[in-house]
Prior knowledge:
Blueprint: H1 3-14, H2 18-40, E1 42-43, H3 48-58, H4 79-85, H5 101-127, H6 132-146, E2 152-156, H7 158-166, H8 172-175, H9 218-244, H10 249-260, E3 270-273, E4 285-290, E5 303-304, E6 307-308, H11 309-327, H12 336-364, H13 367-377, H14 380-395, H15 400-432, E7 435-436, H16 439-456, H17 458-466, E8 468-470, E9 473-476, E10 487-490, E11 493-495, H18 501-531, E12 539-540, H19 557-580, H20 583-586, H21 593-603, H22 607-618, H23 622-650, H24 661-677, E13 682-683, H25 685-704
Parallel strand pairs: 1-12
Antiparallel strand pairs: 2-3, 2-4, 5-6, 7-13, 8-11, 9-10
Domain Inner membrane component: 101-151
Membrane topology: Multi-pass membrane protein
Domain Sodium/calcium exchanger membrane region: 340-456, 560-702
Amino acid sequence: MSLSSQLSSDTTNRRRRPGEHTQGARRHSCEDSWEEIQSRRTIRAENEVEANKLVNNYRFGFRKWKSHVTERPFEDRSEVVKELYSELNIIKPHADQFITCGNVLYVLLFGWWVSLVYLVVGALMFATVIGIPYGKLCWKLCCYFLWPFGNTIHEIGNTLRRCCEEAPDCECSVTVEDSSPVLLPSPAEVPAPEVPAPEVPAPAVPDRPLRTPYWHRLSTYVWLLLGYPPLVIIHSLVCFISWILVFTIPVSKMNAQTLSIILLLPPEDVLISTSSHRKHQGYETRALLCCYRAANWYYYKYAVDGINVFAVNLLPLVIVALVIGYVDKENQLVSSDVKFAMAISSIIPLSYYIGMGIASISAQSNFAVGAVVNATFGSITELTFYITALLRGHRATNPCLQEVVKAALTGTLLGCILFIPGICMIIGGLKHQEQRFNSRSAGVSSALLFISVGGVFAPTLFSKAYGNLVCDACSSINATSNSSGPFVCHNCHYDLKNGTLFHDHIEPLVYTVSVLLPAAYVIGLIFTLKTHSHIYNIHVGEVQVSGHHGTVVHWSRWRSLLILIVATVLMSACADLATEHIQPILNQPNISQYFIGVTVLAMVPEIPEIVNGIQFALQNNISLSLEVGSCIAVQVCMLQIPILVLFNAFCDVGFVLVFSDQHMWASIFSVILVNYIFMDGKSDYFQGTALVVVYLILLALYFFAPSPAGC
Length: 711
C-alpha cells in the first residue's frame, strides 16, 4: 500500500462520526466479552477419560459429576492432599507444634484408656514370666499411645542387631536408645553418613547363644494367646471410631499400623524414640510409625477408590438396615421409626455409588452408550422408591401412599428448581461475589422446564375445569335456616372416578402427555447435543496423556455396571423397607403427610447432587451448579412421571396424574421465578437467598397444610 492511500484511509477514519466510534467500541466490547466467556469454558483434564467426563457434565441429560473417575498422579496433588494420603512412616526434619486442639482431643477420647489397657496387658505379661519381653514392650507402648505425637517407632534392622550381638559393649548399643535413626528419610531430610562400628574381636561362637526364631519361642504363643487378643479389640474399636469421625483418620491409620505390623514383631526389634532424641542417624532401622497430628480438617476431601469417605462410612448402614429390617419383623429390637430412618439414610450412599457408576461408564464410552445409561439409571433412585410405594399402597388399599408419591414428585421438582440453585448461588456468591453463566444454555433448560410443568399439570387443570366438585358433608351456617344460604362443606374434591370424565377425557389426555413429554426430551437432546451443540461452546484443552494409555480408572466399565446393578437391587430393598415402615411417620398428628413427601422423601436421594452443585459453585462454575437442578427437574417431568404412568397402565396401582392445587401452583410459580432469576446470566448470593426463602415459604405451606383426604 502506498503512503498516499494510507493517509487517505487515516483521514477517512478521522472523519467518522462519533456514533460510529461508539458502535465500534461497543462491538469490540461485545467481542472481548464473548472471547472472555469462551476462554472460561476451556476444559483442561489430566487424561482423555477425565476430559470426556467434564464434557458430559455440560451435556443436557447427562448427570453432573464432580469427583474424578480416574486416579490423579500423586505428584500433581497439592501438599495438603498429599498429607492426607501419606503413610505415617515419614519423619519430618523439623518438629512442629504438637500441642493442638486435635492432639488434646485425642488424649481425652482415646489416649488415656488405650494406655491403661497397655498397662494392664503389660502387667499380665510380667505375671506369666515367659512374656516379660512383651511386658516391657507394652509398658513402652503405654507411654507412647498416651502422647504419640512427635515420637517414632522403629524396627531394628539385621546389621544393627548383629552388631549388638557380636559386640554387646560397642557404641551402637549405647546410642541406639538416645537416637532415632532412619533408613528411608523423607525427601526433605538429608541422612547423616553412616558411622562404622569399632572393630571388636568377636568372642568364641560356643560362648554366645544363637537368636531363637520368632515362631520357635514359647513367649510368642503366650503373647498371641493372652496379650494380643485384648489389644486387637481395643485397636479395632479405636480404628473404627476414629475412621467414622473422618477428621481423625490419622488415629485410625496409627492403630491399624500398630495392630497389623508392630504388635507382630519380636519385642527386641521394636525401638521407640522421642522427638528430643534425634541427633544420631545412620543406623539400619526402619521407621514404622510417626504421627504428628491426630486430626486434619481437610479429610472431608479423602476418597477411597474414588468414593468420598462420608459415602464409604455410610455404606455399612445399608447392610445394618437390611438385616434389622428383614430379620426383626415384629419390631422387637427397634421401632418402625428407626427402621424408616435407617432405610431412608441408606439411600444416600447408594445414590452416590449409582452416580459414580453412571459417570464412569459415560466417561469411558461413546455418546450413545452414555445417553442410554444416563436415561436408564439416572432416575433409578427415585423410580425405585415411587414404584415400591405404589405397589405397597395398592396391595394394602392405602390411597395415602399415592398422595405421598405425588408429594415426593412435587418436592423433588421444587427442590431442584429452587433449593439446589439457591444454595449454590449463596455459597458460590459468598466466595466469588458475582458469578456468570451462559444465559442461552440456561434458556434451553428453562424452556424445557416450562414444557415439562405445563405437560405434567395439564390433566390437573383439565380436571379442575370440567370435573364435578363433590363434598362429603355440608351443613348450613344458620341452624334455623332450611332453605338456601351459606353452607360449610367438608372433604371436598373433584370426582374423577364416577361418570365418563376420567375414562373418556382425562385418561386419554394423560397418555397423550406421557408420550409427548419423552418426545420433547429426545428433541432437547438432539438440539443441545447435535444440531446446536455450539450453544455450550465447550473447548477441550490439551490433555497430558493421549488416549487411555497411562490412565488408571477407579472403576472399569464392567465393574461400574456390576456396581450399578447391585446398588439398584439394594436400593429396591431399602425402598421396600422405607415404605413398609413409613405409616407410623404418616400417622403423626402434628406433621402433614404432604410435608413428609416434599422434604424427606424428595430431597434425601438428591443429597449427592446437592454436594456436587456446591462443589461446582465453589470452583466458580455456577453454570454446572444450575444445570444440576434443572437436569433433575426436567427428568422428573419428562421421564419419571411418564414411566410411572406407563407402569400404571400395565400394572394398575391407582396412580392418577392429577395433583392437588397446592402442588400445581407451587410448581408453576417456582418455574416462573427461576426463569426470571436466570434472565441476565448473572448470579450472586442475594438471588440465591431469594430462591431459598421462597422454597422455605412453600415448605411452611406444606407443613401447616392438612393431610390428604382419607389419610
